[in-house]
Amino acid sequence: MPTRSETLAKAAQLRAMFEAQGAMVVEPPILQPAETLLDLYGEDIRARAYVTSDALRGEQMLRPDYTVPVVQMHMAHGADPARYTYAGEVFRRQEHDPARANEFIQVGYEVFDRADPAAADAEVFALISEALRGLPVQSVTGDIGILMAAVKGLDTTERRKAALMRHIWRPRRFRSLLERFAGQTPVPVSRAALLAGAVESDAPMIGLRSTKEIEARIDALREDAQAPVLSAEQVALIAALLDVREVMPHALSRLQDIAVDLPAIAGAVDLAAARADALAARGIDTDQLAFEASYGRASMEYYDGFVFGFRVEERPDLPAIASGGRYDALTKRLGQGDEIPAVGGVMRPGLMLELEAAQ
Amino acid sequence: MTIKLGVPSKGRLMEKTFEWFAARGITLQRTGSDREYAAAVGGIDGVSLMLLSAGEIPRELAAGRIHLGVTGTDLIEEKLALWDQLVAPVEELAFGHADLIIAVPAAWRDVDTLDDLDAAAAAFRAQHGFRLRIATKYHRLVREFLRGAGVADYALVDSQGATEGTVKNETAEAIADITSSGETLRANHLKILSDGLILKSQATLWRSRTADMDDEERLTLAALLQKLA
């Protein structure tokens, strides 16, 4: 295991590499207001981040990553365009795997640039790829934006699309919703009874959720029961899309095939193709680059476009050595009306040193 | 040295535990005044009794400070991550039955499943600007259960007692708590979700996997377990 000072030296070296690309060094505080993170991620973040509190400021979290504070800082007073780099500890609560570190050094690079998203994606990926050169890592890429475009383009009600979008990050839930909208799973008994008007309650109303809200949901359920089912073809197209798992050129041609029947994804697929060109222009061998359409979905993240990770195939016990992606929507949520396309990635210098030593 | 047995220090759980051991030839009793937490063990040598709060028994077992302990499955699974590496169940004691469940106002005609809860939570958040609050003291178990079920847009709020009252008091919209008969829930106008059972718990005798033992203690433990089996 590398010592802490070796890891810090490696981190400084990586950060200097990003500085040389014109990135500004930033050092957000370790303690972050818990409210922002809870609002973004919900209760799940408590399983992942350490929460502490005091009587004055209330709940605070030990930063589980840098992206949120960097975005907040940029949206408050950042230049446009801007590039940032940072190196320091992040803290991750561990409840399942004692071998996973709960505190480690992360180095990152974040690009806020409106000009050419494909080029910015390629820039982040290529720089990290270059920094990892010589290590036994394998990269994989994906694009959450294509799945989002597919959902938006489904021939069904807005309410169903919103429900699917809300669960993009929960693959199992997403799948069961899709099956229900397609009429492939039976309506639960209690739901059928409710729709038939057979569910009465004489219990007193308690709590904040009002009768009006209950009636509104029942109306929405009735409306949904009347709406035509999602066609089996469209369900199959989503499944085909999620199944795409090939090297980049084959993946793109598969996606272009799917786009013939699902034209809503054409724009997102064009963007992926432009990104492949931009990656190739930066010297990445895209003929060998893995693309998985469902990559990055199961992680609790904010990515809504390009996603990537670098792992060690022979060491499935290790977490990703580097990972990142595009998070345009996050800038909007934290931007108070403002937004800017943004992409970034992080590396783990401690794991990199461990791999170097093992060679 | 002795084998240390941890038993809940008060109420029905203590009495029932004493009865359960007595039926197997081991007498546990409190000694000294009513207020003093001192105790004695009869029917076997080399075992000492420690009267502890039921909530502290999981921690004491995990740390190896007691060899055996009686507490509920709910508390073991809530308080100990990777609990099965730290403790092992010896016997279920067939009392102290309680289910950890999710309950919502009975007036919510439209909510019967976790699926409904998720949809109601999304609408609630859009309407009220904050997440639907679930009051509980079982944070870890509830969070993992809801994550597995794909429920989003909720927040857990801590409630260490009188949890059934939180909805009426408008400090929560739903609750996750233990119930044995469901009477308190009904009295507070709450209903259990049809798929809202998180865990079935009962009083259980646990063995610590981490407690050190010398040869003599090992023999004592074996003799004790034989009597209890």
TrEMBL record, chain A:
Chain segments annotated as transmembrane: none
InterPro entries in alphabetical order: aa-tRNA-synth_II, aa-tRNA-synth_II/BPL/LPL, HisRS-like_core, HisRS/HisZ
GO process annotations (BP): histidyl-tRNA aminoacylation
Binding residues annotated for L-histidine, in chain numbering: 65-67, 92, 106, 110, 297, 302-303
Keywords: Glycosyltransferase, Transferase
Any one GO cellular component localisation term in the record: cytoplasm
Domain annotation Aminoacyl-transfer RNA synthetases class-II family profile: ranges: 14-304
Top-rank lineage group of the source organism: Bacteria
Molecular-function annotations in GO: glycosyltransferase activity; histidine-tRNA ligase activity
Keyword field contains Transmembrane helix: no
Pfam families in UniProt: tRNA-synt_His
Subunit structure, as described in the record: Homodimer.
Name of the molecule in the record: Histidine--tRNA ligase
Organism: Sulfitobacter marinus
High-level lineage: Bacteria, Pseudomonadati, Pseudomonadota, Alphaproteobacteria, Rhodobacterales
From TrEMBL, chain B:
Recorded superkingdom: Bacteria
GO cellular component, one term: cytoplasm
GO biological process, alphabetically ordered: L-histidine biosynthetic process
Protein EC: 2.4.2.17
GO molecular function terms attached to this record: ATP phosphoribosyltransferase activity
Ranges where the ATP phosphoribosyltransferase catalytic domain occurs: 54-225
Origin organism lineage: Bacteria, Pseudomonadati, Pseudomonadota, Alphaproteobacteria, Rhodobacterales
Enzymatic reactions: 1-(5-phospho-beta-D-ribosyl)-ATP + diphosphate = 5-phospho-alpha-D-ribose 1-diphosphate + ATP
Species for this entry: Sulfitobacter marinus
Protein name: ATP phosphoribosyltransferase
Pathway in which the depicted protein is active: Amino-acid biosynthesis; L-histidine biosynthesis; L-histidine from 5-phospho-alpha-D-ribose 1-diphosphate: step 1/9
InterPro entries per UniProt: ATP_PRibTrfase_cat, ATP_PRibTrfase_HisG
Keywords (A to Z) from UniProt: Amino-acid biosynthesis, Glycosyltransferase, Histidine biosynthesis, Transferase
Described function: Catalyzes the condensation of ATP and 5-phosphoribose 1-diphosphate to form N'-(5'-phosphoribosyl)-ATP (PR-ATP). Has a crucial role in the pathway because the rate of histidine biosynthesis seems to be controlled primarily by regulation of HisG enzymatic activity.
